[in-house]
Amino acid sequence: MRLTELELIQTQMVARHGIRYPTEGNIQDINGLLKRLKPFEELLPLWMRNYTLPYNRSVAGELAVAGKFELWELGVRSLARSGHEKRVMFLKDNYRIAHTHVKRTRDSAIAFVDSFFENPEDVEYIEYPKNTDFLLRFFDQCARYQREHSFGLKRESIEFSPKDLMAVQSACAFDIALYHHKHQWCSLMSMTFIHSLDYLDDLEQFYWIGAGYKINYEMAAVLLRELVDTMMGRVNGSNTLAGNFFFAHAETTLPLVTLMGYGDRSLLLANATKAEINSRGFRTSILSPFGANIEFRLFKRKSGAEEFYVQILVNEKKAKIPGCERVFCKLSELEQQWDYYLKPYDFQKDSPPPTNNSAEEVRNANIQGDKKPREDEIAQVFMPNAESSAVYEPKATDTPLSIPLGSVVELKLDYICATSAAEVEYLKEFAIAGQVSVRDMLSLANRQRQPSHSPIRAKS
């Protein structure tokens, strides 16, 4: 089937919010590192000696200006893909805009709306309540997920390097995302270290919200069901929606694309070889960056028998729909393909809502979406071989990791690449602050820490 034979009658999109400011936790970690380094000013790069963060807690976790522009541009491109030469008029019967209770998702929706609609002031926003958002924050409403995997991973922790060094990575990520700066925090990291952290991030996300556990992505069945029901409603005339837009989190978009079969479900292991790391198909920097989106486009055949086709764009890129293996698939075929998740799968049974005790655990964990700082901006800027397509296809020229995860000697900090006794003494203090041993942390005699020989698994 060709696009010229089809007429677009409905588009639905599930989008992650745009670039945000660091959370309070990010800010505390970076400020904590700066405070501990203060006594050693003479060893620090000049820019770091009187450095203060260019953001504060008043904007912690909120959508940044760059993020607003990111979603505004997404609206412009979505409008053009829908065949409109100018902004459209918002009518309640034709369009629906929804977001979670978290402010950055509402602000993302507003930015998108400003470029998509001629009358943005008339748009009615649907905000799903904090404690009963089964559609976009299903990860909050599933006690089994929180108990078996989310909190389990948090307890077990996939940390291969000190907390302080992860703060450097986080600061670099936000320097790039917010200000396009690479000359301060990012200058402390070598490409080897960046590649190591990129795999570390993928490893964590794979078992947190990716294909590592079925419950991670099966929770998204409630959202897939809503999307398909909306398409069926347009087909049978029970709704007249031309556009249906949801704004949420990485914990929403990544499980959804995984459920539908995008990305690689092959297990990621802590002891993976260089070749395995290099050729992995699961890359969060490609599947779930800031502004990540999945667009469901419903088409009607222009002539002949009345048939309806679906095209799915992942991050605005065309890709064959897994299972159907075509860019345009019949809606009826997808119904059959996803039948288990559309009908017999019982979210309430498989993912019962939190009890009073588990609800308290959720509150204590302060889950707001984006449970960890997102460093995918680093990978996108520094890695020349990063693919922009929806499904990563490894290249022979990709640079493999040249050291095991956790070997941080590649950081270009003089006081970390120490050789003198005095510097080693300082490093002991640095290691204690990061809650790791000097032996585990350093490679002063070109020795390297050995990676784990088992996959990262949560406690059951």
UniProtKB/TrEMBL annotation:
It holds the Pfam family His_Phos_2. Its main location: membrane. Signal peptide: none annotated. Keywords: Hydrolase, Membrane, Signal. The keyword Hydrolase applies. Residues 351-374 are annotated as: Disordered. It catalyses: 1D-myo-inositol hexakisphosphate + H2O = 1D-myo-inositol 1,2,4,5,6-pentakisphosphate + phosphate; (2R)-2,3-bisphosphoglycerate + H2O = (2R)-2-phosphoglycerate + phosphate; 1D-myo-inositol 1,2,5,6-tetrakisphosphate + H2O = 1D-myo-inositol 1,2,6-trisphosphate + phosphate; 1D-myo-inositol 1,2,4,5,6-pentakisphosphate + H2O = 1D-myo-inositol 1,2,5,6-tetrakisphosphate + phosphate. It is found in: Membrane. Its EC number is 3.1.3.62, 3.1.3.80. The keyword Lipid biosynthesis does not apply. GO terms for molecular function: acid phosphatase activity; bisphosphoglycerate 3-phosphatase activity; inositol phosphate phosphatase activity. GO terms for cellular component: membrane. Belongs to the histidine acid phosphatase family. MINPP1 subfamily. This is Multiple inositol polyphosphate phosphatase 1. It comes from Phytophthora cactorum.
